[in-house]
Amino acid sequence: MEQTFIMVKPDGVQRNLIGEIVQRFEKKGYTLKAAKLMDVSNALAEEHYGEHKDKPFFGELVGFITSAPVFAMVWEGENVIKTARSMMGSTNPAEAQPGTIRGDYGVEVAKNVIHGSDSPESAEREIGLFFNESDILSYKKDI
Ligand code: CMP
């Protein structure tokens, strides 16, 4: 079954959006496999956002994600990588459709509430950066 990495960014944590975001994924039907509130180190931020290292906003991006705790999660389900991206909406909240997480809760591209893996390769890499194998749990939902 497919897994993806989802992270509520510092702005989402501080605006008390963790519960709302978790609820959207739960109600959609996905399974929460791991979750933690954590500070992101500079090294982890630079590795996680490595593909953006030549972009002019890289310093701002790393500075923001390391500024306050994030809520990191692994979600599992059919097509969860692609579907989570549509639930999140466009990267720039100004362009995100109403009804999506960024469309409903975001204003600025730099503070866009949530991150989600954009491909199976990114999901595997990002889950591995933020979690140990033993953090990813299995359980029955129908007990
Ligand atoms: P995310 O999905 O976490 O992946 C890369 C992030 O870079 C993206 O969300 C945005 O928050 C951020 N980003 C993209 N464009 C800009 C920009 N022009 N200025 C600041 N941050 C940006």
From TrEMBL:
Catalysed reaction, written as an equation: a ribonucleoside 5'-diphosphate + ATP = a ribonucleoside 5'-triphosphate + ADP; dZDP + ATP = dZTP + ADP; a 2'-deoxyribonucleoside 5'-diphosphate + ATP = a 2'-deoxyribonucleoside 5'-triphosphate + ADP
Record: active site: 115
Residue ranges annotated for the Nucleoside diphosphate kinase-like domain, each copy included: 1-138
Family label: Belongs to the NDK family.
Protein name: Nucleoside diphosphate kinase
A GO term from the CC aspect: cytoplasm
Required cofactor names: Mg(2+)
Phosphothreonine found at: 91
One of the protein's GO biological processes: GTP biosynthetic process
Primary subcellular site in the record, as a coarse category: cytoplasm
Superkingdom, natural source: Bacteria
